[in-house]
Amino acid sequence: MLEPSGTWIHAEALHVAPIDMTGAGDSFNAGFLYTTLHGVSAEECLRFGSACGAMATLRIGGVKGAPTTDVVRQFMAGQQR
């Protein structure tokens, strides 16, 4: 992702066993926008959006069971090495 300052930021890939990729991009966008609107750093927005997108692949269908912020944070904590 390119920040307005011209600096590129990256997020590590999250390791999941996807079931259905429907809605993963929309889920990434939702998570990224949610954190952006809450004044979170660009790096954290990217990580949170990535987690939302990854979690969306773990169930069938693009809309069912969207996770809460706490559930996303728990998922992110479990992904850290």
TrEMBL record:
Gene3D superfamilies linked to this entry: 3.40.1190.20
EC number: 2.7.1.-
Keywords, in A-Z order: Kinase, Transferase
InterPro entries according to UniProt: PfkB_Carbo_kinase (IPR050306), PfkB_dom (IPR011611), Ribokinase-like (IPR029056)
One GO molecular-function entry: kinase activity
Enzyme class, UniProt record, top EC level: transferase
Protein name: Carbohydrate kinase family protein
Ranges of residues in domain Carbohydrate kinase PfkB: 7-68
One Pfam family, short name: PfkB
Family named by the database record: Belongs to the carbohydrate kinase PfkB family.
